[in-house]
Amino acid sequence: MKLNQRLLVAALALVAVPASFAQGFDQCGTVEAGVTCPRLFRADDQSLWLLDVSLTSYQLGDRLRVQGAADPFCFNLCQQGNGCINGSTLLACGLMPSVICAPGALNSTGQAGTIAASGSVQVIDDDLTLEARQLPPGSFAYFITSRTLTPPVPMPGGSRGFLCLGGSVGRFQQQVGAVNAAGVYRISTDPGAGPQRFSLTAFPQPNGTVPVMAGETWGFQCWHRDNVGGAATSNFSEGVSLTFS
């Protein structure tokens, strides 16, 4: 017979967690049924956790973001999983990109280019927007991507800035465009993106396109033209990486 989730949460709250065991936790994942516990949290890295707050208001398969302290040595009656999350905070699960190659080199605006990402890491959603900011207005730009992240390589190919992508680097050349007056260049899977539209089903690679697969991590940077001191040049923004599920 399954135990009541609220009783398990109450019992968990009575167990003191040594500070040396607790580790910071911040992941997205899904609500899933347990063998003994009615609701557990399956993180995107496939670890499984009992939370110290009730999940009974969530449906199986719902996605959420959980922040708290992970304790792999906690006492619980679930008979499965990697441990407990204490001090749990439940949030909506948006993108959580990791910043790479930061800060970038300054461009002619006196700032370094940055990247913002929004949408969903669920491949099936085909929902991603990449926005490069603080770029020189009017300059031409495009995004590049790779599954290989590297330490920063300065001035690659004679360009200013740093490159943190290696291996098979793809260029979103079909989405090349001009930076707007606000210093922003954007590409998106949104149908309204026009020429700057792309899809997770066709990421560019040197020999064609490939679909993004669950479990893959992809890095992104923006390359753009620039003019510094009257001399034509180019530069790279900082980068971000996303792990899809």
Mean pLDDT: 88
Count of strand segments: 18
CATH A-level architecture of the largest domain? Sandwich
Overall morphology: elongated
Question: What fraction of residues sit in β-strands?
Answer: 35-45%
Estimate nothing, just give the exact number of structural domains. 2
Helix content class? under 10%
Structural class: mainly beta
Low-confidence stretches: 7-20
Q: How many helices does DSSP assign? A: 1
CATH topology of the largest domain: Immunoglobulin-like
Q: Explain this structure to me?
A:
- It contains one helix and 18 strands.
- About 6% of the residues have low confidence.
- The strands form five sheets. Strands 6, 9, 12, 13, 17 and 18 form a six-stranded antiparallel beta sheet that branches. A five-stranded mixed beta barrel has the order 1-2-3-5-4. Strands 7-8-14 form a three-stranded antiparallel beta sheet, with no helix packed on it.
- Strand 2 and strand 3 form a beta hairpin.
- It is elongated.
- The chain folds into two domains: 87 residues, OB fold (Dihydrolipoamide Acetyltransferase, E2P) (Beta Barrel); 146 residues, Immunoglobulin-like, CATH 2.60.40.
- The protein starts with a helix and ends with a strand.
- It is mainly β and 245 residues long.
- Helix content is 4%, strand content 44%.
Keywords:
6-stranded antiparallel beta sheet, 245 residues, OB fold (Dihydrolipoamide Acetyltransferase, E2P), 2 domains, 1 helix, 5-stranded mixed β-barrel, 44% strand, mainly beta, Immunoglobulin-like
